[in-house]
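Service request form, structural biology core

Requester: graduate student, group of Dr. S.
Request type: structure prediction, single chain
Budget code: on file
Notes: please return the result as structure tokens.

Sequence provided:
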Amino acid sequence: MGDVVIRPERVSDYSAIAGLNYDAFVNWRPTPFKAEPLLVDILRHNTLFDPDLSLVAEAAGRVVGHVLFSPFEFVVLGTRQMGALLAPVGVEPAFQRSGIGGRLIERGHEVAREKGIALSVLCGHPEYYPRFGYRQRMFSLSGATVRLEARGAQAPDLAERPVLASDLAWIVDAWRRVHGGDALAIFPGDGIAQWFNHAASHRSSVITRGGEPVAYARYKAARPLAFKEFLVRDVAAGDILAFLLGESGRGGGQVTTSLSADALEPLFAPSEGVQVSGSPGTSDAFMLCALDPSNEVLARYCADVSEGRMLPGLIAFPPILDTDE
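Core staff response, request fulfilled:
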């Protein structure tokens, strides 16, 4: 389709992009809420957002396709790497299956490489994205589980409150301590918008003891409680999890986390007697594309995971993606 122009978005495109993403995804999932238009708006709040990586396909002066690559700092095998999240990519229904989506992705890869971005990750159709260099089963989103009894009212020295801008230095330091040596991780960012809650079904909280922060918890208030991020310092993890179980009105039970058993077990005091179980699980839909072929660290990670020498890294997507659930 030679009459289609691929270019960066403009502010004047925002409404057209929102409408396009609604039309492209309206029949994809049988739910009344469509996250994609809102997701694009929220991802523009990312501190590393780059409009050059929000690309539109224009035909006869009309926006008919859109792709968004959102830059984030990653950790790969304990090293800092620049990467991007690919989400979403949408094409107006009348123009689908004409190659526009592929052209948007390929141009996005080119721009990302020019800007020093080494990798791109996504959750998507396993049959479609490998043609653009994406490898399947490259990461996991679910980790170990913990079973414990609630102690909400029995922990009067603990309190849960919303995240504040004044908490950022503590949270970032805690994140670096927990994830700085991970096989694969995504650093949400150093702005408050990267750490607070973006979905009614989720909570992003700081837990204090005597008014001082001792933990950051981002979790889905479901059954069981599902923790997307759990950062704790100078206090036993079991105390925090049991407190949050009690605050949620549960007498106890299972908690799921996005940490591996190896990372989670040291957070508990031996006297707590907490049972940690489970291992990361992955999916063909969890894909990674190495955009920089000269990046030896990234090449080693991909080879070790693909050939079974290493389990896929366990990542937590930033809070701004919680709106998609």
